[in-house]
Amino acid sequence: MVILGGGPAGYVAASHAAAHGARVTLVEPKPLGGTCLNQGCVPTKVLVESCGLLEKLRRADEFGLQIAGAVSADWTSINRRSAAVIAMLGEGIERLMEDRSVTCVRGYGEFLDANTIGVNGEHIQADSILVCTGSKPIADPHFNVDGEIIGTSDDLLAWETLPRSLMIVGSGIIACEFAFILDSLGVEVTLLASGSRLMSSADKDVSAVMQREMRKRSIKVELNCRIQSLVHAANGVNAFAGNRIVCSAERALVAVGRKANTADLGLERAGIRTNEWGEIVVDEVLKTSAPRVYAPGDVNGRSGLAHAASAQAKLAVDHALRREFNLIYDRAIPVAVFTNPEIAWVGRTEDEARADGLDVVSGKFDLRGLGRAHALGEISGFAKVVVDKSTGELIGLHIIGPHASEMVHEGAIVLQRNGKAAELFATVHAHPTISEGVLEAVEDALGQATHKPLAAARKEHNVLQFS
Prior knowledge:
Elements: E1 2-4, H1 10-19, E2 25-27, H2 34-38, H3 41-58, H4 75-99, E3 103-105, E4 110-113, E5 116-119, E6 122-125, E7 129-131, E8 135-137, E9 150-151, H5 153-156, E10 165-169, H6 173-184, E11 188-192, H7 204-216, E12 220-222, E13 229-233, E14 236-241, E15 244-249, E16 251-254, E17 258-260, H8 267-270, E18 293-294, H9 306-320, E19 335-337, E20 343-347, H10 350-355, E21 360-366, H11 371-376, E22 382-388, E23 394-400, H12 404-407, H13 409-416, H14 422-425, H15 436-446, H16 456-459
Helix pairs in contact: 1-9, 3-4, 3-6
């Protein structure tokens, strides 16, 4: 097996395939780990943790603690720690490949035909090939990205200093995460969103709370503001919309999405079909139009999440090696967003469920009703479930609040097996925890949240409708 790319899809595929007896060659020109380890998930989460600790220290007096002297952030030191974490994890992946006897070839691979990869002037033939080349930030030419004054997320993480002010063009996960990170570090942030709300893929109630939290922190949010161009100016950057300047800042971050890395792979020589966005077209087992070529991860445009890429990679390997496999239910893949507060969801929103023709009911519980939330000093947010009225099936779980990224998985398990919301009701949740918010949200959907006043309409039929 030959694998192109060493990110969350590529190196996981290599590890999985080699563990099951395949002879694996992994082709990657850059350090293993891909965008996730080197420019994405890991370094941004290091930033998130530094910012979270910084904000807690600034509120120390609320917790009865006295700190002598001012607490401030050192961008250089934070980046140094981030580099150390990246190096350690990267070395771990390298050792993992050695342990599995995976042959790592440094270089850019390309298809010579459907069975042969060319790299560094050599030809490597394989029984099966996996294209795991991932994605990269979209850099619209009208945005004049230069990496220094106007940059993508990759560029920002390499900046040696932070600006006094920053405009962020975009409204998705990356844009929102960086808005909170940079605000914590003292940067004046303006977020320019083309749509009517931030993070349109999230539940609308979640978006509303996040926007409220941004306002509390004086993060400026401009909605329905479609930026036409970014132009260098004497004071930094000007953003134009409707042929007028709508924002000026010292620097700009362009976070308008990512696109598949499919250029210069020679896909046409292998008969591999792509769609209008350059993403590789795959079937349910990640197989391409070439019989023995698979394409898991960002390169196929199905998800864009690192953990989804890894799951797809294992499925592709299992199918290629004729092992038993389970298809991936995309709606059961959780999404985690490391804003402040955190956001996580799995399954469909109320609006999506109704658009799909389902008759649903929702249950919701504000986290301020939990003792653990008050102990943490983080009471903003809620847990919300979406339930099919006729069957009681759990359709979605949406959380905004502390530890949301860790709590969402119980919903994913139920969704994966097409289970009912009542299963969560029947599961005893530890006290005092934030996870009790999920239990209370389910109780609310079922008609009787223990720590929530009953609505008048429900007092008449306070029964477990879906038990």
